Every structure is written in C-alpha cells, then in structure tokens.
Amino acid sequence: MPGWGNRRGGRRRSAEDAESSPSTDDPGSGRGASRSAPADPREAAREICLRQLAVRPRTRAELATAMRKHGVADDIAAEILDRYDEVGIIDDAAFARAWVTSRHHGRGLSRRALAGELRRKGVSSDEVGEALDQLAPDVEEQTARDLVARRLRVESNAAPEVAFRRIVGMLARKGYPPGLAIRLVKEALADRDAAAAEFADSIDPDALADSTLEPDSR
Questions:
Q1: For the chain, where are the alpha helices, taking DSSP H only?
Q2: Per-position DSSP letters for 46-106, written without gaps between them
Q3: d(C-alpha 54, C-alpha 40), whole Å
Q4: Which of 34, 36, 148, 175 is most buried (CB neighbours < 10 A)?
Q5: Pick from 106, 112, 141: nearest CA to 129
Q6: How many other β-carbons are positioned within 10 Å of the β-carbon of residue 89?
C-alpha cells in the first residue's frame, strides 16, 4: 500500500532527522549551549553593580552586599569595586555629602539621624563626620524650628498638651535631642494662644528631657 509505505518512510525520516538534529538539552549544541554556558563572573558582577546604580547612587558597602547576595566571590567583588573607585563611579565621601544635603533639607533629619543612616550604609566614620560638618548647628536648629511651625499649624485644633506630645514625638523620630525638641515646642506654643501659652509656661524642659516621652505614632 503506497500510502502506508509513505507514512512509514515519513516516520522513519522524521526519526532520523530528530536523531541528527541538535538537541536543546545537549550541553554542546545549539541554543541550549548558550543558555547553559556560565557567564563570565566579572561581567556578572559588573551587571549587578550597574543595576544597583541605575536606581540611585550606592556606597561601596552596599554594592559589595548586593554582589555577595548573588554569589560573587569576594576577590572578584573587591576587584570590581577598586576599579569603580578609581574611575569615580563610586565615591563614599561624595555620597555622604549628597545624602546629608538631601535628607536634611528634604526630610528634616537631624545630624544624629543622618549619621546613623550613613553608618548603616557602610560609610566610614571619617567620611560621615566630614559630610556632617557641612550642616552647621544653627542650620539644624532652624530646620527643627521650621518643622515645629509647620506641624503646629496642622495641630491648630488640638489641645496644647496633645500638640506638645505629638510635635515632640515627631522631632524625636527625626533624631533631635529631647532638650532641643521640648524647648522649641514650648516656645512655639507660647506664641499660639492664651491657653497654649499657659500650658507652655508650666513645661520644665530640663525635667522632661530626662523623662521618657513616648512619641505619638502620627
């Protein structure tokens, strides 16, 4: 039967073709080989760093952590990072200065809060200190004073004691010392109205600074 013979021949040829065609499962053939071939470890490390840097500037320690999480050997990571240091792709001192400027003026964070953030990012103590030197104490206090004024407008209908607790708590979360926070809020309340001024007059900043004030969650 010609049809059957053709079908058998067709089947036989298909099987032969399959045996002679490269398999994607064969590690030495075709596209399967390119997919399974290991990437150059240095190139993989560079790609990890560039993906991180595309989001925002990073410190050396942050990039080292990212590579370690992806299994990059420490010696290769150090080689890549040393090269990035040389060409200025990473610069912890410049990162710290920019971080202080952005986070202080944008979020109102204190020197203490900024120092903590930079240390958690792996910036050295010397570089943290140099970055914070650009933030003068009087500038920091004025920023805190501005924060108090803005928040007091939000709390305009709150009872003086409630506004006091909330605003001091807000400053505490931004890293300002209790003594400074209490003094600034006391001064602002004294200028708000008669009831707030009376409450402010009863505040002893020194005594309260030594006590534990639970920051309001707002």
A1: 2-20, 30-36, 41-55, 60-69, 74-87, 92-107, 111-120, 125-132, 137-154, 160-173, 178-190, 194-201, 205-209
A2: HHHHHHHHHHS---HHHHHHHHHHTT--HHHHHHHHHHHHHHTS--HHHHHHHHHHHHHHH
A3: 21
A4: 148
A5: 112
A6: 16
Measured CA to CA, the distance from residue 124 to residue 170 in angstroms comes to 28
At 185-201, the pLDDT tens digits run: 999 999 999 999 999 99
Asked if residue 143 lies in contact with residue 109, where contact means CB atoms within 8 angstroms, the answer is no
Q: pTM for this structure?
A: 0.74
- DSSP-derived letter for residue 22 is P
CB atoms within 10 A of CB 164: 24
Q: Indicate the length of the chain as a whole number.
A: 218
Burial class (CB in 10 A: 0-12, 13-18, 19+), 166: buried
Q: Are 58 and 52 in contact (CB under 8 A)?
A: yes
Q: What phi and psi, each to the nearest 5 degrees, are found at residue 25?
A: -85, -10
